[in-house]
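Troubleshooting log. The previous structure file for this entry was overwritten by mistake, so regenerating from the original sequence record. Sequence copied from the archived sheet and checked twice against the printout by T.R.
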Amino acid sequence: MVQQNASARKAAEMAPDGGFVIRVGRRLKAPRALVYKMFTEGAHLVRWFGPEGHTCLECTVEPRVGGRFYAALKGPDGIVRRVQGVFTEVAPDHRLAFTWAWLDEAGRPRDPDLKTTVTIVLEEKGAETELSLRHDGFANAEQAGMHDKGWEGCFACLAQYLAELAA
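Regenerated output below.
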């Protein structure tokens, strides 16, 4: 259950609405049902979620339409960053979609005008899973680029966690 290739596909692009979109993909040596659990069970999510060097201090995940997603991530700089969202689509073992908003210290969206969404699609490829992520709604290329690097780091941590589970 180790990643097969570092990045199946990745690209930043301009969306028709003028916002920016990122796409990140990764092939994982793990069954699709297990990869889905990595995103929908807090006990798993807290073990890998966050870019390399970050620690997920706590998370809440309610994988149902209207359910909440929340994570608190401590970076190597010691700063705790919080993100929340609401699930807009849940298709077990196949697809998840949720809103995404970084929070300030008071728990309010840091940028109330920034509305981004994350869509995750899992495709079974034999004993492996093709993970495709689309994160859209960024106001500029800089925001998109920071999230692109963040998701790449998250998926590296996910691959490492899956490898630990397989050992």
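The chain has a mean pLDDT of 89. Archived copy saved in two places this time.
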